[in-house]
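Hey,

Quick one before I head out. I ran the complex with iron/sulfur cluster overnight. Inputs first:
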Amino acid sequence: MKYIFGPVPSRRLGRSLGISPIPPKTCNFSCVYCQLGRTSNFTNTREMFYPPEELLEEAKEALKQDKEIDFITIVGDGEPTLYAGLGELIIGIKKITSIPIAVITNGALLYRKDVRTDLLKADVVLPTLDAPNQQLFKIINRPRKELDLNKIIEGMRSFKEEYTNQLWLEVMIVKDKNDNPEILTQIKKIIDKIGFDKVFINAPIRPPAEKWVEIPSLENLQNAKEILEAEDISHYEEVLIENVDKKSDSEQRIIEITQRHPLREEQVYSLFPELNKKEIDRILNKMEEKGIIYSVVYNEKIFWKISKNR
Ligand code: SF4
């Protein structure tokens, strides 16, 4: 499968089948915490990267293979609203299934009427807001220079007025950047002004783009949860991975996931319940020797990442 991945268990969306409508690491942000690394295709131009029919064909195929899916989630290897066929894709999915559709976005393009219109038919839209001012926005999210936080917040407010389904915000909490009560209180004021249906906080639990990024203390995460009146702390979450394409071989299964995010060592073991630890280690070592993946240690845990030059 080229565009579809999962299903993966998600705290917010249950068993979620992912669709990525954009080429790897195409984004208008280059967040310091991004698990995909620094943005290589740094753009703010919407493009028809792939024909919507191709994505829909694959979605149909994946839905035939797996019937127990709670959400179809449009989430790019970057920012999915940069895909000019997004509206057509959402309408097309609605025609082939009644499974609800979620779109995970950084929210930067919500100031654009065409993007808001494209998203209207989604069942849940999940934007991000990590900073209350342009200065911190630039430090954490490192947006394209033409992106202005006030304009983005205004876009989120307009979308909330037009949109009749669920709008859920995610705030990524980064140690010593936005984990202090003063900043969080300013973010909360913006949240109240927009009126999200739910707020979640998250922490950089996977290896980030920048080495200096750290997970806040549990105490600060708890404070953040209280100040923002957030639903939960995904930092606690232990997610095991499954793969929709059971036919693919072991290397391919590891590649499919590491292309999208770093894979924690224990998660690799849960991918292959039929194999013992020694056999799995052999597969990983062979892939490392071939230069397909490499390991990094982050937050005292081993993660496997895909090599850029493989
Ligand atoms: S975290 Fe999301 S918005 Fe930020 S750079 Fe990565 S893909 Fe883009």
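Confidence is low (pLDDT under 50) at residues 235-245.

Talk tomorrow,
K.
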